[in-house]
User: Fold this.
Amino acid sequence: MTADAHLAAEFYGSARGAVTARVLRARLSMMWPDLQGEAVLGIGYSAPYLRLWRDHAKRCIALTPAQLGAAHWPAGAANLSCTAEEDALPFADLTFDRILLVHGLETAENAKRLLREVWRVLKDDGRLMIVAPNRSSMWAYWDSTPFGHGLPYSTGQISRLLAAGLFRVERRDAALWMPPFRLRILLRGSPLFERAGRNLMPGLAGVTLTEAVKDVYAAMPVNAVPRRLVLSGAA
Assistant:
């Protein structure tokens, strides 16, 4: 089962969603603090996170895969949103400096094809950030949030998927140790949960953040070894 854009919009419009976005934006801003003048693409349901960079980036585009339905920037935002098939992104090769994939990988109909398209539209020196539900966490199975839909991933699974897609993992992070409940007392305690979880239960975070770059050398064809012609016959 996959989440849709309506569910995600409803979630991020709630108090629980606002706290979730704030926690994740804090981690994303540490990993990508300055995208001044860069072209940024968000795939999945990315608008709550692209707001970190949309005032300074050269361009910010939020793309929602067709199977999730249409999603739009909040009213008054000057950037772009669009909907397209995940395996046919409507952009030229080598267009983006950064690509953020959030609520995208776990809901992809074909993750390998999606990453193939990401590889195509990402610049050779660009960077990909994947935010995905951690299959060891409660968030991955709590279907009142967008993280509880689709296919959760372990860090090992993401690494193998990226390697198969000709990407190389550069950095990892994690977030969302608070329980995925609506109780306001828990939401107010989110900073405490994040600090305690990071120190005491690093493997039980709700989501993982994986930064990757193109493995350009892995994509280069190996030169064929010339064959030697061996003649045989009677002496």
User: Anything to note?
Assistant: The longest strand covers residues 122-133. The mean pLDDT is 89.
